[in-house]
Amino acid sequence: MIQTKGYAVQDKKTDLAPWSFERREVGPHDVQFDIQFCGVCHSDLHQIKDDWGGSIFPMVPGHEIVGKVVKVGSHVKKFKVGDLAGTGCLVDSCRKCENCKEGLEQFCSNGSTGTYNALEQDGKTPTYGGYSNTIVVHEDFVLHISDKLDLAAVAPLLCAGITTYSPLRHWKVGKGHKLAVLGLGGLGHMAVKFGVAFGAEVTVLSTSPEKEADAKKLGAHKFIVTKDAEQLKSVTGYFDFILDTVSAPHDLNLYLSLLRVNGVHICVGVPPTPYEIHAFSLIGGRKSLAGSLIGGLPETQEMLDYCAEHDIVSDIEMIDIKNVHEAYDRMIKGDVRYRFVIDMATL
Amino acid sequence: MIQTKGYAVQDKKTDLAPWSFERREVGPHDVQFDIQFCGVCHSDLHQIKDDWGGSIFPMVPGHEIVGKVVKVGSHVKKFKVGDLAGTGCLVDSCRKCENCKEGLEQFCSNGSTGTYNALEQDGKTPTYGGYSNTIVVHEDFVLHISDKLDLAAVAPLLCAGITTYSPLRHWKVGKGHKLAVLGLGGLGHMAVKFGVAFGAEVTVLSTSPEKEADAKKLGAHKFIVTKDAEQLKSVTGYFDFILDTVSAPHDLNLYLSLLRVNGVHICVGVPPTPYEIHAFSLIGGRKSLAGSLIGGLPETQEMLDYCAEHDIVSDIEMIDIKNVHEAYDRMIKGDVRYRFVIDMATL
């Protein structure tokens, strides 16, 4: 077993604190890489607090993980020692079902294995995430990272990046489309970058007027303060797509009214309470409300390659791991531009 | 003006009763046709009772209208006296907006004109529907009806038919697809006929076990009693599409779980209360919840032509107009197979 240092919560009432644990030895198909940076995702906090139920403790959070390969198994073909490597939200899946075969491991019919707060495919071994110094992952769930980009700023691509890239690709958002990005946070700022890169006209819909300058700097063409009824009215029936990154409760009927005929509202955030949708909000314009969840492994690699080619990374604030609670507090307030990344050298 | 006989409600507290009113003279682009049959749509009842608010009284309901042309305006090119003709839910629209130009008059940006309980494009003249002996409609909103089909059974195609045909065409439902039809009523029975005709595997999801034989007779391949948890479980993650014709409150999260990855749940009914949707129901499988509203004029004609070619009509029960209240009572109980049609000769 590999002795591993990390930060963990012991149960949902305790804070993150240093914890030593073991990871499996590097198997024939495994890659071990030392973690240099790990992004802080809003879902880390949801899971620590058991907001969605079923949390497994002790929990080592973190699923935006990048670092350098230190050991590879005897059968590993895709990686060698010294390579840059990354792992996102998944570390395994059944690999046999229809969805896995199509590269949609996030929808594995038999249940994919999350990077943390999950059980391995054996159904009993807990997984531990990236708030730690090293990790062992089957090579099929390890991604190649370009050395052209700032490694720390690549980390959030593994979740915030693919979560926004995937739906924009799936719905073929691009030239000639009017895309609204609802919420300008970790996910939203990546959605703006991708939307602009894909050629869409991008409008940020935000409750915070003070984010307008940032939105424009990120490349957004328009900015609408959603609390301003007049501004909102000016975009009634305007958008082809809304990418909704908000995980707080909000009235979707309002946003559906901003879509044109055949428009699609895509949710990637998970509010704690159900959406309330009036049938007429969908029927009056043949509109769709859709959801999207991260992306499969092939698409995640495609996204990383696209980012390397187009010089796209996340805007980050680097923190020491001892300051992670302060980072959570600021994240809750929306006071982060736009993703905290832990410098794992501070562990 | 044209003296017209009909059945109307004077306000939402009164019953339908004989009423005489006037229709406009036949203008240069108008077609007048004598109404032989008019279907009874569930939405007639909603509007009479002002369930959706904003009802206009007196109200002559009816938007599944067929009959024979008795007069045409000087500029009318598409119809001549003696032709069979029909009118559905719309009698006008702005004809200038993007949606009208695309033949999606039901989504007219400036507001289409409903066949009854609506105002003409002048914004002040009320429209009166098909529970009457004759009607005057602009030729662009009159449809050609084949003489190959039973005329009375054609009437419901104008609403129940196009409402189910349109989404199945829009989402290209056909060979290789597994389609569920939720609810076997006026709309549902047409959805089954079209789904089968388009080559899909069709499953009826119904609360009423006694409808199984009918469903099979209509061509459905499978029948699932939705109150039977075991039966329902057997189709988890099974369907590509669900066409939801139910206008009573129901839990969509349950039905979304029956969709496979990328599945689409299409609502054509309008329940009185909002749907409650958990974000995970959509996100876990990149699913979509969509709405669809009747169909535009070109597609309605296409549907009628398709029905003539493939010998598709509605299953109907003919009634005298004096029995319309009894018909409503039975419709509420789901006791109609599958559409009441008024024989307007009984007026």
Automatic annotation (TrEMBL), chains A, B:
Keywords: Metal-binding, Oxidoreductase, Zinc. Its cofactor is Zn(2+). One of its GO terms (molecular function) is zinc ion binding. InterPro entries: ADH-like_C (IPR013149), ADH-like_N (IPR013154), ADH_Zn_CS (IPR002328), CAD-like (IPR047109), ER (IPR020843), GroES-like_sf (IPR011032), NAD(P)-bd_dom_sf (IPR036291). It comes from the Bacteria. Pfam families: ADH_N, ADH_zinc_N. SMART domains: PKS_ER. Residues 13-342 form the Enoyl reductase (ER) domain. PANTHER family: ALDEHYDE REDUCTASE (PTHR42683). Belongs to the zinc-containing alcohol dehydrogenase family. This is Uncharacterized zinc-type alcohol dehydrogenase-like protein. It comes from Flavobacterium segetis. The lineage of its organism: Bacteria, Pseudomonadati, Bacteroidota, Flavobacteriia, Flavobacteriales.
